Amino acid sequence: MSLPLAGLSAIVTGAGRGLGRAEALELARLGAAVVVNDYGQPGRDGTGGSSAAPAESVAEEIRAVGGRATAHLGDVADFETARALVDLAVREYGKLDVLVNNAGILRDRMVFSMSEDEWDAVIRVHLKGHFNTTRFAAEHWRMRAKASGAGPVYGRIVNTSSEAFLAGSAGQPNYAAAKGGIVGLTTSTASALAKYGVTANVICPRARTRMTEDVFQGAPPPQDGTVDPLSPEHVAPLVGYLASPAAAGVNGRLLVVHGGMVAVMERPRVAAKYDTAKDAFTYAELDETLTPYFAGRPRGETFASPEILTLRRG
């Protein structure tokens, strides 16, 4: 039986550990040749130097079972490094078909205590890193599509956002902002590249990784031999699906995924709407109209759907 990604090549950033590693292994299992990118920093805050070992270890795992993989050491938040990463995939495998953006760091702090560097570093790696690789992959696909007689090409982008963006994680204003920006980048990219045959989607994964080791302290892995519902391996199949020909009609979508559950999110809906018969509302009219409405809502509620906080395996 032919594999769904046979003959395709993929880049997975931040693939030396955790979610990125699981995604790279899954794409390879489905038949793709994979460029495994990682900067190899020991600290989840992006400090501690870099090492080629994590990326090379994952690439070797893929090669050991007969797959094709190339390791790449590099910081995708650097514009020229991202260009070189895409060039490497094209040089090694003839073309690029799939881009999975996963690289990121954490520098958590309450907004009133956060330093400029803590803000800039997280925005740089997550949001700029996603943009950089997307920019050069998009250029590659556009050039191929515009080649004489080429027509639409095969292109898939899977970006990584977070429920921190959806729910407003209090101690992560930098991370939440970056992840929200990634959603905007993805939907814009989806609209821009659709005519070339390229899709762009974004996932909000919930998984036990080095970056979330503090979040899930109260939910340790099961000790009875059952599968950990927070294992990254629960997320990887969705990435494989979105990278496949089967997902050609899925574009500009946001999906939440964790153990045994995938939720397709909608854009925010209008919860209430008020009109004035005049040219504009006055302050008094707004006070009379909106204050009772918000008084009837739970204190601290945001526009985010409350269901996102209670998704469970079903």
Automatic annotation (TrEMBL):
Claim: Membrane is one of the keywords in the record: no
PROSITE patterns assigned to the protein according to its UniProt record, in alphabetical order: ADH_SHORT
Lineage: superkingdom: Bacteria
Gene3D superfamilies reported for this sequence: NAD(P)-binding Rossmann-like Domain
Keywords, in A-Z order: Oxidoreductase
Ketoreductase domain ranges (all copies): 8-210
Family note: Belongs to the short-chain dehydrogenases/reductases (SDR) family.
Full protein name: 3-oxoacyl-ACP reductase
Organism name: Streptomyces peucetius
